[in-house]
Each structure stands twice: as C-alpha cells, then as structure tokens.
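Changelog-adjacent note: as of this version, every example in the card shows the full chain rather than a window. The one below runs 533 residues end to end.
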Amino acid sequence: MQKIDFLVIGSGIAGLTVALKVAQKFPKKSILIITKAATDETNTKYAQGGIAVVNDLENDSFEKHIDDTLKAGDGLCDEKIVEFVVKEGPTRLREIIEWGAQFDKKIDGNFEQGKEGGHSQSRILHYKDMTGHEMERALLDAVDKQKNIEISNHCFVVDLITQHHLGSLVTKSTQDVECYGVYVLNLQSNQIEKIVAKITILATGGCGQVYRTTTNPSVATGDGVAMVYRAKGRIENMEFIQFHPTALYQPGLQGQSFLITEAVRGEGGILRNKKGEAFMSRYDERKDLASRDIVARAIDNEMKKSGTEYVWLDCRHIEKKKFETHFPNIYQKCLSIGINVFEQMIPVAPAAHYSCGGIKTDAHGKSSIKNLYACGESASTGLHGANRLASNSLLEAMVFAHRCFEDASETITAISFKEGVPDWKAEGTTDPQEMILITQSLKELQLVMSDYVGIVRNDIRLQRAMRRIDLLWEETEQLYENTTLSPQLLELRNMITVGYLIVKSAGFRKESRGLHYTTDYLQKNDRCQNIIL
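Full-length structure tokens:
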C-alpha cells in the first residue's frame, strides 16, 4: 500500500500542470502521477492547432473571446466560468512559457496568431502543427526537475475507493461520498495495488475510442468518467460529443485517424464536395470557418447526398512555404500516402474528437465526491456548453489545473489518510480463456455508437443503441466478475459505461442544440438545460 498526499491520474497538460504547481508549493509533500501507458501518450500530445488566448488587446478583447465561446456553446455555457477562463488565460500562458514552452513568432518578435472556426479574431497561438506536443514536452521537462513527483507508468486505475469499499451502502442519494484513493492494476507486476490519498485529481482525458473512427489515441477510453459514475458521482452533458470535421480519410482505417487541424482552414483551406463545389456557403455565412458542429453536419450531409465517404479539403492555393512551415507534419503525412497538397486535394471526413461533457465540477474543479477533483477533457466545467470553441481545450486545462491546485492546497491540511481500507479481493476469478469475447464486444460497441449515436441522431437509433449496450454491459459484467482483470477488459467496461451515458443523455435531450442534432426534435427547447446523470 502507498500513502500519497496528492494523487494525479493522467499525464496530459491538466495533470502535469497540477502536479508541477503542487510540487513547487509543497516540496515536502508526496505527489504521484499515474498513467496507464507511456507518460507522454495523451490527448495533449495530439493537439495540433493551438491555444486560444487574447494576446493582442489592440485588435482583440476578452469580451470578443467570451462572446465567441458563448455563441459556440449554443446557450449552455456558464457565463461566469467562460469569463474567468478567458481572463485568466494570459496569466496561465505566461506560466507555461516560463516553464519552457515555445510558440511560433513573427520576425518582429510578436506571436503569430491563427484563426479557427467560430473565432471572430486571430488569437490562436501555436507551435507549427504540434502545439500540444510542445506544451507537454515543456511540462514533462519541468516535472522531471521536481524531486517530490513520482510517475508510475503502465498502471491502470481500476476504481476509486469510497465508503462503498469499507462496507457502507453508497447510492446516488448518498450525501458526502468521499474518495480515499484508488485501486490500481500494475501492468508490470500484474498485481492490483492499493493507493490511499488525501487528494485525488482526475485528468484522464477523453473518450473518443468509444467510436469506430476518432482523432484520439488508443488511451482515450473515458476511464475517469466511468469511474466517477460507478462511485455515484455526478456526470453532465455526455451527449455533446464533438466530431472534428477534418480527419484524414484513409479507406478501411479504424481507430485513430490523423487530424487535419482547423488552422488549415484558417489559412485559407476550402472544403469541396464530390463535384468540386465549395459548399460551406450554403450552410453558414462564415463558410469554412463556422463552428465545428455546423461544419461537421454540413460535411455529413454532403457525403450522404453524394454517397461518398469523404469530402475534399483544397489547399492547392495556399502559399507553399507558409504551408510547409506551419503544417510540416500534415504535409509529410499526406506525402507518405501519395498526396501532394499543392497538387491534390486532401480527402477528409468527420471523426469523434472531444467530449464537451464529463465529470461535473464547480468553479474550482471539485467534483460531487469529496476530496476528488477533475480537470481537462474528463471534466464538465461549464466552459464549453453544447459545443467547444476551437482551441479552448488547452486553455481550459491550464486554467482549471491551476484552480484545482489552489483549492486543494487550502483543503489538504484538514484531511487525514483513511485507515482500514481493504485490499482488493480477487478470489473466485480465473484467467479469461478467449480474448475474442473482449475484442468482439469492443467492435460491437464502436459500431453501435458510430451508426446510431453519431453526428445525426433520432429516437429510434438511440433506443436501438441502448438495447445493444445493455446486452454488452450484461455480458461484460459477467466477465468482470468471473475472470482476472486485464487492461483490455477494464477499458471495455469503462467504454460501455461511457457509451451508456452518451446514449442516456442524448435520449433525455428533446431538442437539437450544438453537437446534439436529432431529426425528431429539430428546434431548440429553452426548458432543456444541462443533463446531469
């Protein structure tokens, strides 16, 4: 058993920022970062576009960024949250620059600022087309210099420890559910270990792998959301799954798709249909730089009308040196599959990208479970509402990581380690005889979610999805109860839970708003607000 003052689950920008700040303030307290894969294998690593921050008050303003965020969120953003996230952004940006992060600059030394969908001004700071990778690199370098931060790779968190594990009945109506730490499957020793913590911070990322095609890496399986739901914590707005409009289309590819950042359209890239028509003017006056929900639905509609599986992104007119400088990875990736972007158009299609809902938190990142915080994509803070504004995710992660740090720093002095936490019980289980029972269920789940709970939905599709997910849940719970645990089984169990939450939330929302578009309820319903499960 380990006893840890600050336990951080996840090593993306949110988790690393919290850990670094805590280590600098409390050099004598123990900090443990747990990650189920390599330390740098996170959603942050694959964030291409940049970070939205007001950095030029002569041509931009906090009010404009706030207004853009509210418009994208389609009436469900928490305005107070939006205001402080936008206004605290420049301070958090300066911090990460001080920690060593680099951003592209012009010859005069000022930051280059791109423009993406939904933004009224150019305010996106970036490092080529690998901004998240660069920010994560700087944070990992800074974390490595802290003597009181330990990182445990290849450790899979099985469940949060609450009163339930001490013999108390915990339900959704239970008041003051408390988190005492976690049970962890150490993938190197294949043993389940117990970690007791005073403060636990979930920064577990998104859930894109629930869908057949996603821009997310294989680790994005919604683990944090599933664990909190099982622990009777509050989950919010899971129906709002953002599909990035432009993932590189490769025939037959499933799993992680290569992202073509929105910044390409910010530099003048034009979406064209099978006939070569620039179609976005038919859907929104902002054309190719409309918000992501509108662009993704437009592409989906064009594909359905033409019977194709992709549309074209035309970059042939963009100045060659500019494209090669700003988007070197995209340029090389396209070349590797035989596409010269200066001579040929890029085939693109929407792919699951970002969860705007998640673990419900307050303005300080506190979840509904005592001593448990959440930040980053796994959290539902109130910033994104029904649709995330492009490049607000890295901003939110930095701001809420800081707020989690501030609040936890004040509360930890009054918290003691919980005594009497039992060891994990695995009696009566055996090794699984057929891995196909797990892999086939995963394929079924991803197929159901992609076909029935994608960009366009309706009640019949949702009902079918729920019936199939119920069966998958029943079969997987039997495996969980009767076989020894594996990362594949744990991820499947979490993804089924997340799929259930997405479908359940979508079924409750009797309207079309933001990322939730249903042919049964095409109009907005002002009485339909946040969906909390």
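Structural remarks: The chain has a mean pLDDT of 94.
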